[in-house]
Design a protein that fits this description.
- This protein is mainly α.
- The protein has one domain.
- α1 packs across α3 and α2 packs across α3.
- The longest helix has 30 residues.
- The protein is elongated and about 50 Å long.
């Protein structure tokens, strides 16, 4: 898969993870747009970092084809990091704004 495809999969996973955290905990909710943006950014950036730390997530990139297992791994990594970033930003927002 290409780098653009990897980023897109990770950002979508991150957006989903960010929205899941926002819905699950009102203390961390940034609203639908805020959850989506922070999740997508966290998923894209965090997914790239995880991909460099865990080579199995980037394994199909060298083969040049689309590997569903790799895409699912990237989506999961992006979802987790997107959820974490959204939770952290939500908690900071709540602490600063009350």
């Amino acid at each position: 898969m290409s780098v653009i495809t990897d980023l897109l999969v990770q950002a979508i996973g991150g957006a989903l993870g960010g929205n899941a955290v926002g819905r699950a905990s009102k203390n961390m909710d940034l609203g639908p747009i805020g959850n989506t943006i922070s999740g997508a950014l966290g998923g894209g950036i965090g997914g790239q970092i995880l991909g460099s730390l865990i080579p199995a997530l980037a394994g199909a990139a060298s083969s040049g084809g689309f590997d569903i297992a790799t895409a699912l791994g990237q989506a999961a990594g992006g979802g987790i990091t997107g959820a974490i970033v959204t939770a952290v930003v939500g908690l900071i927002k709540k602490r600063l704004l009350g």
